[in-house]
Amino acid sequence: MEIGLPKYTRNIVREFHSHIDSEIKKDEHNVLDFGAGTGALAQIWIDDYAIKPDCLEIDPELKLILKNKGFNVFSNLDEINKQYDFVYTSNV
Asked: Rounded to whole angstroms, how far apart are CA atoms 17 and 34?
């Protein structure tokens, strides 16, 4: 996680969420974190909005961290067989 930047990361997710909220009206959202890293942003989605994103991450060590945190993780786009309401990337 970006140490010392909690407001920065939370603001990024808040901005993304403002778009998903206004453009997509439904109870559940399919969200993909493209280049999820350690899952700092994905965790904020869970904590603040009760939305658990799937994660795409190519780095094996980061992928393991994400899996240990309970995220559904993909290594490449070919592994994904569903559509998403919202895909985001940040700090990749």
From this structure: 15
Alpha-helical regions (H) of the chain: 6-23, 40-49, 60-68
Burial category of 13 from C-beta neighbours within 10 Å (exposed 0-12, middle 13-18, buried 19 and up): buried
Contacts of 58 (CB under 8 A, 6+ apart): 35, 75, 76
Look up tokens 């060590």; give the residue. Answer: 61
Alpha helices in 24-89 (DSSP H): 40-49, 60-68
pTM for the model: 0.86
* Model confidence pLDDT, tens digit, residues 12-52: 999 998 887 665 565 678 999 999 999 999 999 999 999 99
Cβ(36)–Cβ(71) below 8 Å: yes
